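Response to reviewer comment R2.3. The reviewers asked that we include at least one raw input/output pair. We reproduce the pair for Na+/H+ antiporter NhaC here without editing.
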Amino acid sequence: MNSIEEKPIKQASFLDALIPITVLVCLLGAAVYLFGDNSSSGPNQIALLFATFTAALIGLKNGYTWKKLEQAMIEGITLSLGAIIILLMVGALIGTWLLSGTVPTLIYYGLQIINPSWFYAASCLICGIVAMSIGSSWTTAATIGVALLGVATGLGLEQVVTAGAVISGAYFGDKLSPLSETTNLAPAVAGADLFEHIHHMLWTTVPSFIIALIIFIFMGFNAGGSTEAGRIDEIVNLLEQNFNIGFEMLVPLVVLLFLAIRKMPAFPAISIGAVLGAIWAMLFQSDLINSQIDASQGQAIGYFKLVWTTFFDGFSIDTGDEKMDSLLSGGGMAGMLTTTWLIMTALMFGAIMEKTGLLDMFVKSILKIAKSTGSLITATIATCIGTNAVAADQYIAIVVPGRMFKDEYEKRGLKPVNLSRTLEDGGTITSPLIPWNTCGAYMQSVLLINPFDYAMYAFFNLINPFLAVVYAYFGIKILRITPKHLKQEANAE
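Raw output as returned:
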């Protein structure tokens, strides 16, 4: 005789789907209210866990076994492991690049080259070019973005606006790069050709980027040169006193960008960059290292111990200037553990919501009211944004809505590139604006600015989804094919 039979699975209701979402929104709101910018250091994770337990209870009520729910959570965490190992190695890279003088050198030359009046626009454009070249918004933010924030500090400009410019440029370049994972994923899910997808994206992406650049230019002129030249000279002198500055310090960055362009996977490329940073530190920053090591066990062991520590605990320096100390200290794998915890809890919640059919229930409800092409594309963008908030991962925000809406687009005679572009306009672009999303958590860990703070200045990421909706309602660049049911009728004849 068979073991006890499993209960039949009941279909989730709209109320079932609404309960865990309501719990999550209320708890996340309470976390921000009670803990402010520190909400991502633990409170948000607890909110996500309680929301996960709520969704699991609804799943149990509907007939799912705990074993199946637990397996879904494990699979959800598994999806994040690739991002987590990259995140940890980025922490090591930032630490060794601070010690090697790579980041200080970028700041040093940036202070002397970039004018405050066009700094925001230049930051956006530089990040866009780099991200398009290497296909990675994450690598761009962790390298060029970190340095640009340092330059902004030296110029007396707003860090949150600079972060918005970095995010805008990084995601613009990432979105249009054939090397980008999301740019390949969206057409694969929608059934579109990669290069046709990129060409179709230009119609919403380029105008959005141009508008963002214009806004950054005006903001730069209004910001002016709020820092006296004496302060810039002071920072430059501090950098010269504490680091060996020179173009040779940029070799680790050049090597990393070259490896990325050559399509080396992110983890080994970033690992090589981090190791190269450590080697460069020992070759060119001997005075700095000698001032920091414990030589009680011998100088060689002191060197080795300091570099080893930089990998896991980051780098710190005492220049006598508190702001510069904050700017030139950081990194290390340990500094990424809070973000890792946030990513894991967020994906557990997303996995439970998908497994129990609660996400699908939302989409079915949306399709009932999405009668026109404009409303369908708007609904797709809204679903991508909602999935980014609920499932907390940009890949899920592309794959899940893509699977759910693909047949509907075909039935209505819409070419697959319409869906693939919309998945990027709603999924890829909005992911860094949500603090508990994997992208938002990552950006906060490397830029050290809460996504809620920089979101209002990430103009490209805000304008692009809005412009996509405008295009949809006015029928601009909406490509059509023969609807699926008419094809079937023609074949039957």
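Residues 81-335 form one domain. The chain has a mean pLDDT of 86. Further pairs are available on request from the corresponding author.
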